[in-house]
Specification:
This protein is an alpha/beta fold. The protein has 2 domains: 11-225, TIM Barrel (Alpha-Beta Barrel), CATH 3.20.20.10; 235-357, Beta Barrel (Lyase, Ornithine Decarboxylase, Chain A, domain 1), CATH 2.40.37.10. 26% of the residues lie in helices and 24% in strands. The chain contains 11 helices and 19 strands. Strands 2, 3, 4, 5, 6, 7, 8, 9 and 10 form a 9-stranded parallel β-sheet that branches. Strand 16 and strand 17 form a beta hairpin. Helix 4 packs parallel to helix 5 (87-94). The radius of gyration is 23 Å and the shape is elongated. It starts with 5 loop residues before the first strand and ends with a strand. Bound molecules: pyridoxal-5'-phosphate. Residues 33, 35, 79, 160, 194-196, 210-214 line the site of pyridoxal-5'-phosphate. Pyridoxal-5'-phosphate is lined by residues 33, 35, 79, 160, 194-196, 210-214.
Length: 358
């Protein structure tokens, strides 16, 4: 039998989540953010499922290449923009929009001798302090771009929120204000909202929302799962139980003997570990579901395997399905137990895991 570790991607969940985003932001166009291989769900698979989106957002030009090769003709936005002059021919050939966030990118556009106009998204830094021009320079940069013959006249204005997952947070209010103020004399569509802002900041929806996590059914809002917002998980990660051993009271389990059996007890072994992308830092007590019953992880997660306390489910059998996260076991719970966020967990699934669609 081949290794049972499987990521099942729920195509209908992706489509449901896109409808949910549209219902939440009914007056906005939707950019489906598919960077990092569609948050680990598979770039082409996700893009085909979400072909109803108005655009795709990618972090690498190679992803745009893959989307076009898959026959997708939607707008594609390169979210961190061009890195050097050699990107320009590819941008034109693939018909990709590019974010402009830095003087180095303005210089590349200025030195460009082609005239076929490129569509740009001008990114302003309203407080995230990662990518973007200072808001004080918004008008100057906008005017510069407008005058370039190789830049399309329809310039989208964008910014990115640092803490939109806090639905009453002062930082988002401040970022919104700075964006509105600095763009008041500039024409062009506005794009501010990531998933958390789609869920919690309707005033920030405006012309284009940029949905990533929400489309995969993921939440980054503290204490909330995707399901709490009417989203459905797009990934179920599963494997099988490959051994059940009866271990004596006082014996320890796994590497570094971090867990001792408080009594004679059955210990299950599931065929998944950090080599598959399951977080090694998942703490003792992190749940898995065996045939719908929750049982806790004991000992350390190792590369290929994890050990489970079966005292609460003595009927478990070798060969039983083990669900690590997905429908009925929100990935947010596992992420919290591992000191991470749901996005990182789905992005971390490795190549040896079999992907199937359902
Ligand atoms: C990744 C990304 C998004 C999507 O964020 P989510 O929280 O996944 O919705 C939106 N905009 C930009 C610029 C991004 O890099």
């Amino acid at each position: 039998m081949s290794r049972a570790t499987t990521a099942t991607i729920h195509i209908q969940a992706l489509q449901h989540n896109l409808s949910q985003v549209r219902a939440l932001a009914p007056h906005s166009k939707v950019m489906a953010v598919v960077k990092a291989d569609g948050y680990g769900h598979g770039l082409e698979r996700v893009a085909r499922a979400l072909e109803g989106a108005d655009a795709f957002g990618v972090a690498a030009l190679s992803d745009a290449e893959r989307l076009r090769a898959a026959g997708l003709s939607q707008r594609i936005v390169l979210l961190s923009g061009i890195d050097d002059a050699s990107d320009l021919p590819a941008i034109r050939r693939l018909g990709v929009d590019t974010v402009v966030h830095h003087d180095s990118q303005l210089a590349l556009l200025q030195q460009d001798t082609e005239t076929d106009p490129i569509r740009v998204w001008l990114k302003l830094d309203t407080g995230m302090h990662r990518l973007g021009f200072p808001v004080e320079r918004a008008e100057t940069i906008y005017t510069q771009l407008k005058m370039m013959p190789n830049v399309h006249g329809d310039i989208t204005l964008m910014t990115h929120f640092a803490s939109s997952d806090e639905f009453a947070g002062a930082q988002t209010i401040s970022q919104l204000k700075q964006f509105t103020h600095s763009t008041q004399y500039l024409s062009g569509p506005h794009s501010l909202s990531n998933s958390a802002a789609i869920l919690g900041w309707p005033e920030a929806h405006q012309d284009w929302v940029r949905a990533g996590g929400a489309l995969y059914g993921l939440s980054v809002v503290e204490g909330k799962t995707g399901a709490d917002f009417g989203l459905k998980p797009a990934m179920s990660l599963s494997t099988k139980l490959i051994a059940i051993n009866h271990i004596k009271k006082g014996e320890s389990i796994g590497y570094s003997a971090t867990w001792q059996c408080p009594e004679d007890m059955p210990v299950g072994v599931a065929a998944i570990g950090y080599g598959d992308g399951y977080p090694r830092h998942a703490s003792v007590g992190t749940p898995v579901l065996i045939n719908g019953v929750r049982v806790p992880i004991i000992g350390r997660v190792s590369m290929d395997l994890m050990t489970l306390d079966l005292r609460g489910f003595p009927d478990a059998k070798v060969g039983d399905d083990v669900l690590l996260w997905g429908t009925d076991l929100p990935v947010e719970i596992i992420a919290k137990a591992a000191g991470s966020i749901s996005y990182e967990l789905t992005c971390s699934i490795t190549r040896r895991v079999r992907f199937i669609e359902a």
